[in-house]
Amino acid sequence: MQLANLLISLITIPIFLRTFGFNVYGIICILPQLAMDIRRIKDFGKDWKWVFINLVPIFGWILWFIWLGFGETGRGKTKFL
Predict the structure, then answer these.
(1) Is residue 76 situated within a structural domain?
(2) Containing domain of residue 52, as a range?
(3) What is the DSSP string of the chain?
(4) How far apart are CA 68 and CA 76, in angstroms?
(5) Is the pLDDT of residue 80 over 80?
(6) CA angle 14, 19, 21 (to 5 degrees)
(7) CA distance 12 to 25
(8) How far apart are CA 27 and CA 74, in angstroms?
(9) Based on the structure, what is the number of domains in the chain?
(10) Does the global pTM surpass 0.70?
């Protein structure tokens, strides 16, 4: 899902910037992306407020990538129900 979103963003950014002056696709995707991020962080066993770790440059992004990649049980396996 993240890869598809990235590819669509890379294609639409130049189009929307020329047309509207801002990325319409990016604004539309904020709420669904936030919902997916909160779900993934809860799967890892953290509170939803940890989503804001993304606001910390470099360290926050690396930590976020590790959490979302490995899940609570490790090695990419997440705990379901």
Answers:
(1) no
(2) 2-70
(3) -HHHHHHHHHHHHHHHHHHTSS-HHHHHTHHHHHHHHHHHHHHHT--GGGGGGGGSTTHHHHHHHHHHHHTTTSTT-----
(4) 8
(5) no
(6) 80
(7) 7
(8) 33
(9) 1
(10) no
